[in-house]
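stage 2 :: seqdesign
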């Protein structure tokens, strides 16, 4: 089962990535303790949704 993250964590992670352009996606993800693919998905979704990372029903996924 995958780990669940709340909306605030996701949005903070996306903000961290955008504020640290000197770091690549993998380094940012490592610093945050998440997979680069996870961070990449959140960044893409936030770019599509005006900075908001959508969540499923319970607020986690």
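stage 2 :: out
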């Amino acid at each position: 089962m995958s780990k669940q993250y709340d909306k605030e964590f996701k949005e903070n992670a996306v903000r961290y990535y955008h504020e640290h352009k000197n770091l690549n996606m993998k380094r940012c993800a490592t610093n945050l303790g998440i997979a680069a693919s996870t961070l990449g998905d959140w960044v893409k979704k936030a770019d599509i949704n005006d900075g908001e990372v959508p969540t499923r029903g319970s607020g986690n996924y």
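stage 3 :: structure notes
- The radius of gyration is 11 Å.
- Helices lie at 7-19, 25-32, 36-48.
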